[in-house]
Amino acid sequence: MTSKKTLLKRAEEQFLRKDYDNALKIYSLLLRDDPQMPDARVGVFLSDMGMESDEDAQALFDYYQIIKESNEDAEKIIDELMQTIYATRVVIQEEILGSLEEAGLEEGIRYSDFIRLVEEKGSFKEAFEDIMFSTRVVIRTREEFIDFIERLVGAGYREMAATYLDTLAESFGPDQEIYALYHLLKDSES
């Protein structure tokens, strides 16, 4: 039986060779056995990113290697960075970013389908973590956006929720319910 350390080394070698498919498979095997393994979680995310943006993925991999040796909060720093990057990948359509066709629904799932997954899992956080690195969530309405932000905050993804709000709040115009979400963020700090 191959050890976790050996598999991790193999995954990192595949990643550095830019063989993101194989790196992703190996990191996924590691996550199957240890879902909280920081190096595997980062590896899955960066391998997925590498398929779209090779230079960015390699740069973040190098950054992660440097900070994990010199910073005890490396996992937290990278986790927040991954959440922020993922936040930019969620597709908001119709009045925010355009029509459903332009949003590329074929590359993601509708928010209503995501909520069904949440109900099946019994946990927003678990369902969100299952899809966050591989699938876009297509949010079509203001109500879905508000619900999504409230659920992110409730699941502890405060920084990600703040990123969404900062990026998209102006898209809704002077909407009091959207601005009230900032109060929800502030209240969640305590």
Provide a concise account of the structure shown.
With 190 residues, the protein is mainly alpha-helical. 71% of the residues lie in helices and 5% in strands. The chain folds into 2 domains: 4-78; 90-188.
Characterization of the model:
The protein has eleven helices and three strands; from the N terminus they run H-H-H-H-H-E-H-E-H-H-E-H-H-H. It folds into two domains: about 5-80; about 90-190. It has a three-stranded parallel beta sheet. The chain is globular, with a radius of gyration of 18 Å. Helix 3 (about 40-50) runs antiparallel to helix 4 (about 55-70) and helix 5 (about 75-90) packs parallel to helix 10. About 70% of the residues lie in helices and about 5% in strands.
SSE map:
Elements: H1 4-16, H2 20-33, H3 38-52, H4 54-70, H5 74-89, E1 91-92, H6 100-103, E2 108-110, H7 111-121, H8 124-131, E3 136-139, H9 142-154, H10 158-168, H11 176-188
Parallel strand pairs: 1-3, 2-3
Helix pairs in contact: 1-2, 1-3, 2-3, 3-4, 3-5, 5-10, 7-8, 9-10, 9-11, 10-11
- Main sheet summary: 3 strands, parallel
Strand content: under 5%
How many discrete structural domains? 2
Order of helices and strands: HHHHHEHEHHEHHH
Radius of gyration: 18 Å
Low-confidence spans: 91-105
- Percent range of helical residues: over 70%
Coarse shape: globular
Q: Determine the N-to-C terminus distance.
A: 46 Å
Helical element count?
11
Average pLDDT reading: 78
Structural class assignment: mainly alpha
Major sheet: order of its strands? 1-3-2
Say how many strands there are.
3
